[in-house]
Fold:
Amino acid sequence: MPDTALLLIDVQNVYALPDSPLCVPEFGASLGRINRLIEGFEAAGKPVIYVRHVHRADGRDAGRMFDFSGAAEPVGFVEGTVEAEYVPGLKIVPGGLHITKRRYSCFEGTELEAILRSLGVKTLAICGYMTNFCCETTARAAHDKDYFVDFIADATGAPDLGEEYRQPAIIQAVCATLGAGFARILATEEYLGAMR
Structure:
C-alpha cells in the first residue's frame, strides 16, 4: 500500500461520553481498532492525519451545520469543551499531523488536500466517527478528488438513529453504497495483514 495515509476522523469525546446524544455503541471496540491502525501506519512509516470537528461558541463558523432543517439547534463541538477534545485513549503518534474542520468533509475549508499532495498521497485509509456523516462524506469527496479510498468499516462508528436503525445497519448501508463506486471496504485485521 504505497503512498497511503491514515485519516482519523473526529475521534472525540462527544462520541464516547455515556450521556452524550451522539454516544457510539461499543465505542471502546472501535477505538481499539483505530489504535491498531495507527500502530500499523506508524510502524510502516506512513502518514497519520488526525482531524477534529470544532466550532466557535458563537456559531459564526457553523454555517448550516446546526440549522440544516431551518430550525436552529445549539452549536456543538465547541472549541475548548471536553466534548470537542480527542478521546483520552486515542494513540497520538509523534509526527502525526493535526487538522481542524468545521464541516462534515475533511476537505472542506481545510488544508488537507495541500498536505496530501505535499506528501505524495494517492490513497486514503479512512476510519473514525461518524460512519454515515463525516466518514462517508469525506470518502465521497476524496473519490471526487481522484484519491483511492480504503474505508475501514469496523474502525468507524455511529450512534443509533432511533430504535429501528442501529449502528450495524448504518455501517452496512454506508458500506453498500461506498463499495459500489467510491471505495474499497475493508476490516481492520484484513487491512493490517495486507500492510505486512
Remarks:
- The domain at 4-52+86-195 is CATH 3.40.50.850 (Rossmann fold).
